[in-house]
Amino acid sequence: PSLVRFDDGGGNVGRSGNSRQRHRRDSGGSYGRRSRRNRSLTATKDSLLKEASSTQDVDNTVKSNVMNGNNNNSIANTSTIVNDNNGLQHTKYIIKEQAHQLSKVFYLENLPFLIVTCLFLSYILSDTLSNIAFYRFMWLSSLLTPPGAILRWKLSKLNGTIFQHSRKWKWVPYGTLLANVLGSLVSISCVATYQHVVVNGSGSYSKDGWLAVFLKAMQVGFAGSLSTVSTFVKEIVDISKKYPSHAKSCYYGIGTIVCCCLLGLSIYSPIVRSSAGSV
To answer: CA neighbours within 13 Å on the CB side: how many for 268?
Structure first.
């Protein structure tokens, strides 16, 4: 029925039903276009008003112009002010973030370094004033720890690089294995030297002397930071998960312990026996 045409007697032809309503609504010329334009302007005003209300620097008169004005000038002026204020807020945010990052760099991230430095200097000062072996041992251990840790880090880069083309031996973490073996050898060498020179010696070196303290600091600081137990255990777990049907993790764990024990015994036994025989 909406497609039925009719004649009102005056020569005007129209449509019946819903089409007549659409015809009457559009008969005003640009009424539909003005309505869409007004809705678009209203939506633009509302969005600009929300942005303007979020900033504290927008003047109240501008807000009233946006709410009550019917021309485009108020919208353009408000848009300019809002954009300026948004740019200012963005600049303030960047400055605040940069200041926060600088505070983290100079305080939080360097806080452990500052604490260690203060402790190190306090141990040196205490050793100088009181001449106590404990303070000497502490600052010597702190001094020898970074070289061991750096060497440990360098050796860890060998993991996965040795025997890459060998399917039988490429799974072994040789960097960690070498670090643990070297750490054990350095530690047992310090123990054997201390036993030979200080304990079984002629008495020229005291237990609180520089040599005895240096050997203990070398054992604890350098060898302790060079060797690793946490990475060793983690690698055993990773190998067992990667090769669940093989005993490679057991081979690696037992092999590392046996190798360190045998090499340590081969160094410790001759030194201690020679000092005991001389006594």
So the answer is: 16
